[in-house]
Amino acid sequence: MMSTTHNLAGVIGKGMISTLGNTVAETRGALYQPVPRLPELPRRVATTLSLPVFEVADLAPDTGIPGGFSLQLLRHALREALDDAKLAGGDLAGKRVGVCMGTTVACQLNDIPFYATLRSGALPPARPLNNYIAGNPAEWIRRELGLNGPALTISNACSSGADAIGIGLLWIRQGLCDLVIAGGTDELNRVPLVGFNALGVCAPGPCRPFDADRAGLNLGEAAGVVILAPADAAAGDRAVCAVAGYGNSADAFHITQPDPEGHGLERAIRLSLDSAGMIQPGDIDFINAHGTGTPANDRVEAIVFHRLFGAAARFLSTKALTGHTLGAAGAIECILTLLMLEESTVPASMRFERLAADMPCGPLRSPCRLPAAQWALSTSLAFGGANSALVLRRR
Amino acid sequence: MPDLYLQNCRVFSRFTTPLSEDDLKAVRIACSLRRADRFTTLAAAAVKAPAGQAFPATLPPSTGLITVSAFGPHKTVFATLDDILDYPEDMILPVRFSHSVHNAAAAYLGTILAITGPTFAVTGFEAPLFAALELAQTLLHAAACPLVLLIGIEERGSLTQAAPALAPERFPTEPEEIVCAMLLSTEATAGSRRVIHERHPSTSTSTGTGTSTSQPAAAACTLGLSEAAIRQLAESDNTADLRL
């Protein structure tokens, strides 16, 4: 293992927008509300499906930005993260700044009117194509901020955001960058909405992660951005929390179903613990699970948590608060986990009431005060059997 | 960062070894790709097509896997849109949707090759192959895997065909269909080639986060590769440094 393995990436700035709030401060307050907001039928997305979703309502669509609403969400979170890090545009000049972003929607040309024209044999307007190309999230940030560091857009489906932050950690450790802007973004879009419905994984009501009566997920939309700096540099040294470890492992099992025994997830978690300095499962104070509310995902996570962390594993899912935000999920869940570490309190896993017979353990039923909490884990699972785990540390 | 070495490489393109639909059919059968789309089949062909140069039949399970594409499986995305346009929303085919995501090809490749190492689908328009090479170097430097299998795929379809008419400054010609497999490590071995890749700098001088719709600077050719680079990549007996 490399000598740089244990180095931390201090989180010097955070920005987040979701249905929990338009800022990190709003999110922090909403995270601990005893009665969460309910998902509602889509308003911005035109659909005939009666599926409850978590839609960001307080951000008017701006047609002046490429990449659609996904990029607008990203810009919002990016500005907050840069402000939080006290970085103005000029502060980035001369620094090696990398950008690593996760997305699913922003890297597909899902414009239905554009395609309808194209398939009719006529030439559609060029704007959707140009916006799609200009809206690649990492490349857009690099151009927008005039950066010359690496720019990488990862589309690992639902683990994209976590993977982006994990790669950001590696860039910091390897001295490739002085700063890394990492995160993920995804808008609620008609295509994944009907797609997930076709897969039979959408809940008809509010999702109930890990509950015996869980019936699927609610889609959501969000963006989350963190600014990372080496923990041995001045800015990073002042950071309260840090990204400490990252692991990624594939199931090599099935295109949409997770390995029922969770071997890939277990490998990813073990790799993340090793990457954080060979810490042991017992060092982890709590886990922010992927916890989509689908029968297969939640069962696998519970099995792996029980196997690795024991029956007393403390874990929760925040997706009953935000919905499943796809390429943003790993990023916003990283930020939510950082907030939990900062507040030394883990909220209850919303809408979990009853443990299923096939689950060896369940999530937190009530908020848990952990004054000495130092280590947390955030897990992400994705289409295609992708598994990622981030270890986060309060310093 | 340690140097990056190309251990094996196969390139299928109009400029090198072309892939026929018969080749792809053979790959579908050999790899049991009953449901997979053409994009995924192209990705599998990168390592499994009978044509082309020799490639290791097996790889260590901990091998890292990166797929990279600008347009991704856009034909399958459009097939999903066909469903939405032609049928009620609750009647679209789940298989089409699940194959329309960028990382579906990586998932299939991992299963075909029994690779469980770190796996990524990378996408971009400025210089996606260079970004993927940088990611490979990062993973290898972090000892996250002993080898990285990098698969570049660009598939022809109605979108790539329309691109020159829609955006002629960016696409003077249609992006070429290409598939390449690059097996990478940070150790030089007999016959390996050092890969020298340079990041394309951003040309924007913007310092704010406004609402710029400025276009990417670099011409989006096929994975950001010129014809000369594609030909150079395919030179199996050349052990000189590979400058991309």
From TrEMBL, chain A:
GO terms for molecular function: 3-oxoacyl-[acyl-carrier-protein] synthase activity. Pfam families: ketoacyl-synt (PF00109), Ketoacyl-synt_C (PF02801). Residues 1-394 form the Ketosynthase family 3 (KS3) domain. It comes from Oligosphaera ethanolica. Belongs to the thiolase-like superfamily. Beta-ketoacyl-ACP synthases family. Signal peptide: none annotated. The lineage of its organism: Bacteria, Pseudomonadati, Lentisphaerota, Oligosphaeria, Oligosphaerales. This is 3-oxoacyl-(Acyl-carrier-protein) synthase. Keywords: Transferase. One of its GO terms (biological process) is fatty acid biosynthetic process. InterPro entries: Beta-ketoacyl_synthase (IPR000794), Ketoacyl_synth_AS (IPR018201), Ketoacyl_synth_C (IPR014031), Ketoacyl_synth_N (IPR014030), PKS_Beta-ketoAc_synthase_dom (IPR020841), Thiolase-like (IPR016039).
TrEMBL record, chain B:
Gene3D superfamilies: 3.40.47.10. It comes from the Bacteria. Pfam families: Ketoacyl-synt_2. Residues 202-214 have a biased composition (Low complexity). Residues 38-219 form the Beta-ketoacyl synthase-like N-terminal domain. This is Beta-ketoacyl synthase-like N-terminal domain-containing protein. It comes from Oligosphaera ethanolica. InterPro entries: Ketoacyl_synth_N, Thiolase-like. Residues 192-217 are annotated as: Disordered. GO terms for molecular function: acyltransferase activity.
